[in-house]
Amino acid sequence: MSKPDSDLPNDSMTTPEGSSLTMTRLQPAEGGNGGGDATNHHGLQHQDSLGSAGSPQSWSPDANPDLAPALFQAGWRKFWSKREKRPYYFNKNTNESLWEMPPLDSGPDLLSDPLGINMSPSDIRLSRASTDTPVVMSAKRRASGELMGSPPKRPMFNYSPFWNFDLPSNVIMYERSPRKILPPHPDVEMLRAQLLSKLRQTYQELCQTREGIDAPVESFNRWLLERQVINKGEDWLLPSDCNPVISQSMYREVMNDIPFKLVKARYIQDIRKQLLSYAQAARKMIECRNTSSASRKNVKWNVEETFTWLRSRHSASYEDYLERLAHLKRQCQPHLTEAAKSSVEGICTKMFTLSCDSARKVREKHLEILKESNIEEPDAPPELTTKRKVMCYPIQTMVPCPRLPVIQHQTDQETTQLTYGTEVLKINTSHLHKLEQLYRIFTRDDPKFDNFLARVFCLLRRYKTYFGIKNSEGISLQGALPIQVFECLHRVFGVTFECFASPLNCFFKQYCSAFPDTDCYFGSRGPILDFHPISGSFEANPPFSEELMEAMVDHFESLLSETLEPLSFIVFIPEWRDPPTEALIRLESSRFKKKQVVMPAYEHEYRHGFQHLCSKQDMNVKSSHGTLVVFLQNEAGFARWGPTSERIQELLLSCRPKDSV
Ligand code: SAH
């Protein structure tokens, strides 16, 4: 079903559309459910735009005699397109518009609740979509007549406390060509997950066998983030084309735990134990590594001295032990680093080589699946020759989507399970609604939602793979600002866009994310470092990867220096000063910095990194570190959204945990 012109942009400041017939999905207008920029069309504008065939009376059933009562009741109205000189249909409840008469359906309203996930469990039955492509709804089946005459159920998400997709974007960018991105497929995603999980396991084994340590917690995830900054390969998750091959972040983190991982000790006996263990591990390591005799002598001497000190100081304080440990580490670490250098570099190289192999296997499988559907990989699109300013819009892809397999889905009140083969993925039902809403706004190649579940499956599988195997992994890399902070940022500083997000944790419907292939159906504008806005007000809460945060600051600075139009970035990063991260240093000394404020540890919160899985009670978590908020703005951005003291006060108030307000 095509969309009527009323929903598409018609002036030079809107998004491009229809420029290529090969495009499989177009998302220019965001004219869907209650959103879009000022040029988009909402109910009122449809009323205004009524031509000869239309009049305000169109809102009464009598004025729509050829509309079935059920369609009328579902919010559908018939209008006349002056431009196309033909009628079209507009749904005032969902803002959906269609050229053709909407299908009459006795089941759940496909357009507003294609999966029937707003139905009570006893209502769940085979959806109408399942007759076209078999999207099987679980639970019992009901005779179609049973629902006849009952009004279609409306989604509950006209207002959700967790996100607000009614807020239109103020972000302007240059028009972008569609991308040659391979459309996700559950089989490919499962293979990617399997290979990445193998990679994690190999990393642990390499750290154990070669260095006698556990792989540092989250260092694999930070390796992925660091590699993403420089990866030119075609897989969005598995690094495969990076220069240099040896990752600085992986090298640094492994080396930091050699010969023994030191942790923050609470009690005196713990810190004493750590000093002893470090000394023993240093001695053991230096004895079996190929290193200079001077290094060996130096380490051994310091270790012996520590043992002597330990024997003689029975009444040493916590601070004495801490100081002694720092001293020992200072003395030994350069020699130990030298001794372990080639071995740790070997781990980094091996990990990268294995990742390249995995990326190749995934790609081969992907192309094979596409080939089965007679889909050839198209040539890269030609570069756009003219620069056209447009409202920002999601990544457009140009590779057609193959037929996607059936995904089972079962909703049990707050949680929904998606099943494909042996794989079961969970999501909070509220977040499934959220994805449904984003999909409706942004996806044009699937009006019946035939591919919705398979695409949600791929998305969930991707993020689960990204987070890691162990439950707590990935949490700290996905924590989001609380809702009231986003609301304040929008109200006070005109923010409408998140620079770092996922479809699962975004608050606005405009956002950048790591995975354009899985996320574009849900509105992603792609990775932030590939995104070049000219104007707009942004929030940035990056995952805590030093390299990514550093690249982010450089990126923002170059964007700010390239435009005279209002541009503003409000950046939230951890206040790590011991030692300060490069990103923090660069932010604080940036020529675009207009203001910085600190939110002290435990006096503000983040939303749970797995908000799509955790319960409502666990949603907000007090931050154990301070957060530095830095305003980077050009002059026009400062004039429009400048951090005046009243605005800053309002922001700080919104950041205070609810229980302390
Ligand atoms: N959107 C929330 C949560 C941010 S958590 C907020 O702004 O508060 C950081 C998010 O950045 C994660 O969801 C992570 O997947 C995403 N991310 C990682 N790399 C990215 C990249 N290169 N571009 C954009 N987002 C990225």
Number of helical regions: 17
Proportion of β residues? 5-15%
Bound molecules: S-adenosyl-L-homocysteine
- In oligomeric terms, what are we looking at? single chain
* Share in helix: 25-40%
Instruction: Please tell me what the overall shape is.
Output: globular
Distance between the terminal alpha carbons, to the nearest Å?
50 Å
Class computed from helices, strands and strand pairing: alpha+beta
Mean pLDDT: 82
The major beta sheet can be summarized as: 8 strands, mixed
Poorly predicted tracts of residues: 1-63, 105-114, 116-159
How many distinct beta strands?
16
Radius of gyration: 28 Å
Short description:
The chain has 661 residues and is an alpha+beta fold. The protein has helices spanning 43-48, 69-73, 129-132, 186-211, 219-230, 248-256, 268-288, 293-312, 318-372, 429-442, 452-467, 483-493, 516-519, 546-562, 582-588, 635-641, 645-655; strands at 76-81, 86-91, 97-98, 172-174, 389-391, 408-412, 415-420, 423-428, 497-501, 511-513, 533-540, 567-574, 593-599, 605-607, 620-622, 627-633. Among the domains are: 69-153, no CATH class; 186-365, no CATH class; 483-660, Rossmann fold, CATH 3.40.50.
